[in-house]
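quick one
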Amino acid sequence: MQLRMISISVLLAASAWACGAKAKGSEPPAGGAGASLYDRLGGKDAITAVVVDFVEQRVAKDARINAFFATTDIARLEAGLADQICEATGGPCKYTGRDMKTAHAGMGVKDADFKALVEDLKMSLDHFKVPAREQQELIGKLAPMHDDIVTAK
Ligand code: HEM
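structure w/ protoporphyrin IX containing FE:
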């Protein structure tokens, strides 16, 4: 009886190991070709690093658009942007801020302002050496928000 119990547990342990090994082997590599954009960008920490650089080193220093952010809570904006990008790229986050129409209502954002902001984002993505394909995919996720954000001619 004792021996039977031992051999059953050995068998269970061996099959658990085999299943684990198989599941692990069939997962795409974190940054590999089949991975989500979120994983290819390097996950939440990498996204947050891009967002902080974008807001503090690009937008804040961009005289074309920085006046818009004069009274903005920057830490809150950065946290919201990081969650939004994380969620939009297939990551495990949930953006809980205002929708884009409400958040930008009454600001009078023009198309040129939107373009300036996307140029700033591209500068941060270049700074972190994000490849062209991932840059295009990310900008492709944000571009459809244009009409909710740009409200002035
Ligand atoms: C794809 C482009 C954009 C995205 C994804 C985006 C995203 C966001 C997000 C997530 C927030 C935070 C909203 C909240 O927490 O309630 C926000 C706020 C804000 N956005 Fe944008 N935004 C974009 C374009 C722009 C542009 C072009 C401008 C102006 C040049 C702008 C100006 C602002 C300002 C000033 C705030 C802060 C509002 C406040 O202080 O209450 N955004 N944006």
